[in-house]
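hiii so um. not sure if this is the right channel but i have a protein structure encoded as tokens and i wanna go backwards to a sequence. like what aa goes where. can anyone help
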């Protein structure tokens, strides 16, 4: 079970994040998570999770100039956006490993941490896929549901 807290981030603070500090970042899809992104940064040796919402369904009570848009995110994290655009290119080599999560949703994991993260993801995937006959076909949708649990397990394993 995931016990991670999604922190609010202002547009001003968002624009101060260096992409080199981004370890995980999701891209929206057509279903599931079409409304924003979740990203994890390494801040002073700790994992900090942020959630940005409102891309498809903006809150009408919020000042739009203070909202973080998909365009803002693609400019702030150009390597993420490039990875997303190249997600179908098996020869693409960039900052991130791209994991497809179904219906256009994706998870980009920094290559520097992917090897450490992968066993935790595989463990929760295996546990959650046991209930399905078509394990390979369901793998992508299950990644969508468990990637944060795997991250939580990894953090606990590291005793951060």
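sure thing!! here u go:
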């Amino acid at each position: 079970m995931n016990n991670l807290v999604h922190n609010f981030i202002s547009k001003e603070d968002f624009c101060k994040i260096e992409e080199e500090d981004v370890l995980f970042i999701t891209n929206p899809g057509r279903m599931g998570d079409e409304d924003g992104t979740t990203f994890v940064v390494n801040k002073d040796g700790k994992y900090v999770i942020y959630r940005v919402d409102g891309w498809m369904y903006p809150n009408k009570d919020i000042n739009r100039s203070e909202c973080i848009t998909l365009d803002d995110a693609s400019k702030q994290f150009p390597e993420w956006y490039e990875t997303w655009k190249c997600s179908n290119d098996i020869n693409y080599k960039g900052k991130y490993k791209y994991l497809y999560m179904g219906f256009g949703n994706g998870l980009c994991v920094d290559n520097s941490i992917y090897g450490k993260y992968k066993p935790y993801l595989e463990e929760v995937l295996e546990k959650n896929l046991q209930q399905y006959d078509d394990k390979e076909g369901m793998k992508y949708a299950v990644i969508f549901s468990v990637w944060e649990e795997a991250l939580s397990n990894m953090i606990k394993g590291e005793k951060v």
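oh and The longest strand covers residues 37-43.
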